[in-house]
């Protein structure tokens, strides 16, 4: 089965419809650009603006999740960015049913590099409400909340 639904969805879109600003997201770079635009256009407002440090943390999490989907998940097949009161919820869809063992670790960095990188420890340290769910059509969705306040 070929699962290549490369959608990006912003919360402002009506249910079942793609945001006009959404585009096919297939790389970490595209995911970062799209996420930054959602923060600047939908999350920031008078009296509430993401700091540069918070935006850097968010984009680092985006990079790691998208790169993991490409490198280990059989491709980035869907990417969602949803602004919330606390920050931004990300959902990354890939083609692999495999749940990474490091995903629910303590966030400690490996003392030696044995083929595993620093991605999951960084995600664990910077994100909240980490969830991994298998998708009915195959693959999985990794969702996280990255605080911006």
Unreliable stretches covering 5 or more consecutive residues: 1-23
Helix content: 25-40%
Q: How would the global form be characterised?
A: globular
Radius of gyration: 15 Å
Q: What share of the residues does DSSP label as strand, in percent?
A: 15-25%
Count of distinct strands: 5
Average pLDDT reading: 83
| Intertermini distance | 41 Å
Element order: H for helix, E for strand: EHHEEHEE
The total count of helices amounts to 3
- Tell me about the largest β-sheet: 5 strands, mixed
- The largest beta-sheet arranges its strands as 1-2-3-5-4
Sheet/helix structural class: alpha+beta
Provide keyphrases for this structure.
149 residues; alpha+beta; 30% helix; disordered N terminus
Could you walk me through the main structural features you see in this protein, from its secondary elements to its overall organization?
The protein has helices spanning 28-43, 52-72, 119-126, and strands at residues 7-10, 76-83, 87-94, 128-134, 140-147. With 149 residues, it is of the alpha+beta class. Strands 1-2-3-5-4 form a five-stranded mixed beta sheet, with helices on one face. The radius of gyration is 15 Å and the shape is globular.
Summary?
The protein has 149 residues and is of the alpha+beta class. Helices cover 30% and strands 23% of the residues.
Write the layout of secondary structure elements.
Elements: E1 7-10, H1 28-43, H2 52-72, E2 76-83, E3 87-94, H3 119-126, E4 128-134, E5 140-147
Parallel strand pairs: 1-2
Antiparallel strand pairs: 2-3, 3-5, 4-5
């Amino acid at each position: 089965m070929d699962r290549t639904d490369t959608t990006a969805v912003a919360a402002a879109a009506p249910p079942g419809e793609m945001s006009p600003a959404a585009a096919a997201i297939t790389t970490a770079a595209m995911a970062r650009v799209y996420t930054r635009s959602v923060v600047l256009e939908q999350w920031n407002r008078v009296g509430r603006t993401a700091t540069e440090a918070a935006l850097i943390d968010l984009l680092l999490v985006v990079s790691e999740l998208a790169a993991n989907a490409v490198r280990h998940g059989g491709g980035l097949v869907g990417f969602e960015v949803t602004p919330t009161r606390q920050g931004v919820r990300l959902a990354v869809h890939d083609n692999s049913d495999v749940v990474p063992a490091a995903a629910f670790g303590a966030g400690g960095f490996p003392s030696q590099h044995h083929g595993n990188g620093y991605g999951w420890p960084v995600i664990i340290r910077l994100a909240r409400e980490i969830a991994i769910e298998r998708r009915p059509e195959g693959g999985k969705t990794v969702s996280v909340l990255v605080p911006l306040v």
